[in-house]
Design a protein that fits this description.
Layout: H1 18-45, E1 66-67, E2 75-76, H2 93-127, H3 134-178
Antiparallel strand pairs: 1-2
Length: 185
């Protein structure tokens, strides 16, 4: 059975334009018709009589072109342009991409969450006011006591000054009463 040379070429179209699609459909129809003729001729040669016409094949969906390469199995090219295994057609390549994305996201969350928590804790620790050393605290207490003592002494001095001022003013008033005035003389 001799197939035409056009059947030995793999054509991958991800975005076929209308003329290329029409050319491919026309070529597929011609190949199908030629194969049917050859099968009928072989059947007549074996004296079995004419074969009933073969039912029409389903059209190839756009973006999926199947064709054997010389010496190799047929290659299936999906809508994404990546070859996939024809025996495993239940899982489309897009679903595999989505599953891989999901698992990568889960891994990123598992690894990233503890790192983010540690970073947040570190930032919280920096926000706390720094501890004052004990030596500085003792010096501040000593300074506060000294200021209180000075304030007490200043209060005693001002009280003594008021007392002295009062005594002097009383003596002056008493001296003025005890001395005769100029009219009494």
């Amino acid at each position: 059975m001799g197939l035409p040379a056009a059947n030995t070429v793999l054509i991958s179209l991800q975005d076929p334009n209308a003329t290329a699609r029409q050319e491919l459909q026309r070529a597929a129809r011609e190949i199908r018709a030629q194969v049917q003729k050859e099968l009928q001729e072989q059947a007549r040669g074996s004296n079995q009589g004419p074969l009933p016409p073969a039912p029409p094949e389903a059209p190839v969906p756009p973006g999926v072109i199947v064709g054997p390469i010389q010496g190799h199995e047929p290659v299936y090219v999906g809508g994404s342009g990546f070859p996939f295994n024809p025996r495993n057609e239940q899982i489309p390549p897009e679903a595999v991409d989505m599953a891989m994305g999901f698992f990568f996201t889960v891994v990123a969350i598992i690894i990233g969450l503890p790192i983010a928590r540690a970073f947040a804790r570190r930032m919280d620790r920096k926000a706390v006011a720094p501890q004052v050393p004990a030596e500085v605290t003792q010096q501040l207490n000593h300074l506060a006591q000294a200021v209180d003592a000075i304030a007490l002494e200043v209060e005693r001095i001002s009280e003594g000054q008021r007392f002295t001022t009062r005594l002097l003013s009383e003596q002056r008033e008493g001296a003025q009463h005890a001395l005769p005035t100029g009219s009494d003389r």
